């Protein structure tokens, strides 16, 4: 009887504790939440102040000079624009981030995600269109330089929610959704310092491409050409590794080999970074076919005229020359057997203008089409000597070493003591 009474007392005490938890003061202090009946997620529209939208109605002529000013918050003392607070699983955040994580949807919608106030400010300075901004603390929002922006949606999100969707180990606490820029709309923040056009072929590692963009911008190259097959330069890992280089050097993406000549000056010299070739000790170089003297129309064995180059237009309605010889396997087989002269990277006297530097993927090596391009423009191979039986360097390191050797030759000055 005593045992059953003790068990009953324990059960009664546990029920009493649970009931106290259910009716504690913390529950009574919670604010009521108003639920809105919305037919679907697609019809959700952000709540936005009319005054806030009108402040962004500026002209693009004053992008560099005009900065939008907001009143100072009395509690925090920070100057922040009006924003809306979102709940934990608000579809206006989760649905957008889900779309941005999917590459096909991201490219279809032409959106990119940028994290961190420094990159966001660089993107705004470069004229990119900011559409949505997510932040966790007003301190990060106050440091954003709002210039010409139209219909910007600003939402405050819990930091743990941002951290859950962040691509970084340490979430910076602010994310910006931008419209994907084009070469024509992007305003480059710096001027080129050396006359170098960099061709990246088959660079599939985001970290490598981001480092190449960063180092090329730091060296002051004219532009970067990415052939079809390279990783998307606006992918989040590439953006992070680029450290703002995307906004300081023009990048042209998805270039077909048949159109590569449209982006290279006629009087250019092509240099291929290749560590697999042997260095030529002598200064004598063999003669190559000069394709500039070959007519565009050739007569075949049957007496018919073959047109190998023709002119078409691109998406911007600009004339583009197409060289179909870059797609002919029989034509490319000739260049697989050609052994271009290879020189030490520091033993070449680089020209003072129209330099083209080619770098390929580490695993696939030099493409036969790159050899053909070098033959068309009287190019050579350059090599960086390695020790300890190492076969190759990382692509970004190899590009950086050669670029700064070119920069040294073109800008070096001697001080007499």
Automatic annotation (TrEMBL):
One of its GO terms (molecular function) is RNA methyltransferase activity. Signal peptide: none annotated. This is rRNA methyltransferase 3 like protein. It comes from the Eukaryota. The keyword Methyltransferase applies. Transmembrane segments: none annotated. Keywords: Methyltransferase, Transferase. It comes from Argiope bruennichi (Wasp spider). GO terms for biological process: methylation; RNA processing. Residues 196-278 form the tRNA/rRNA methyltransferase SpoU type domain. Coiled coil: none annotated. Pfam families: MRM3-like_sub_bind, SpoU_methylase. The keyword Transferase applies. SUPFAM superfamilies: alpha/beta knot, L30e-like.
């Amino acid at each position: 009887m005593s045992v059953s009474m003790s068990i009953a007392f324990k059960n009664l005490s546990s029920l009493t504790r649970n009931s106290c938890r259910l009716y504690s003061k913390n529950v009574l202090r919670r604010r009521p939440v108003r639920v809105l009946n919305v037919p679907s997620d697609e019809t959700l529209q952000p709540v936005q102040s009319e005054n806030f939208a009108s402040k962004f109605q500026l002209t693009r002529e004053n992008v560099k000079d005009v900065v939008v000013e907001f009143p100072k918050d009395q509690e925090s003392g920070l100057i922040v624009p009006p924003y809306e607070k979102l709940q934990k699983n608000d579809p206006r955040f989760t649905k957008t981030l889900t779309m941005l994580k999917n590459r096909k949807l991201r490219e279809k919608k032409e959106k990119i995600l940028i994290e961190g106030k420094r990159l966001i400010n660089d993107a705004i300075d470069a004229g990119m269109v900011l559409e949505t901004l997510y932040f966790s603390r007003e301190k990060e929002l106050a440091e954003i330089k709002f210039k010409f922006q139209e219909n910007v949606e600003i939402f405050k999100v819990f930091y743990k929610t941002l951290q859950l969707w962040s691509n970084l180990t340490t979430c910076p606490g602010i994310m910006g959704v931008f419209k994907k820029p084009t070469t024509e709309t992007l305003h480059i923040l710096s001027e080129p310092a050396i006359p170098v056009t960099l061709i990246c072929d088959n660079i599939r590692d985001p970290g490598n491409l981001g480092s190449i963009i960063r180092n090329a911008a730091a060296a002051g190259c004219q532009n970067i050409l990415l052939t079809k097959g390279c990783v998307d330069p606006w992918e989040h890992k590439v953006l992070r590794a680029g450290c703002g280089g995307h906004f300081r050097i023009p990048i042209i993406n998805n270039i077909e080999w048949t159109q590569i000549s449209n982006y290279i000056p006629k009087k250019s010299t092509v240099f291929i970074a290749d560590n697999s070739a042997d260095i030529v000790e002598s200064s004598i170089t063999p003669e190559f076919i000069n394709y500039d003297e070959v007519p565009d129309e050739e007569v075949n064995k049957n007496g018919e005229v073959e047109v190998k180059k023709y002119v078409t237009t691109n998406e911007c309605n600009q004339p583009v020359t197409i060289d179909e010889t870059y797609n002919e396997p029989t034509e490319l087989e000739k260049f697989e057997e050609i052994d271009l002269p290879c020189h030490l990277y520091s033993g070449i006297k680089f020209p003072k203008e129209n330099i083209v530097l080619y770098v390929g993927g580490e695993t696939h090596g030099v493409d036969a089409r790159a050899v053909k391009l070098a033959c068309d423009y009287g190019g050579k191979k350059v090599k960086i000597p390695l020790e300890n039986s190492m076969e190759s360097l990382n692509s970004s390191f190899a590009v950086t070493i050669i670029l700064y050797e070119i920069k040294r030759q073109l800008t070096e000055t001697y001080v007499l003591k």
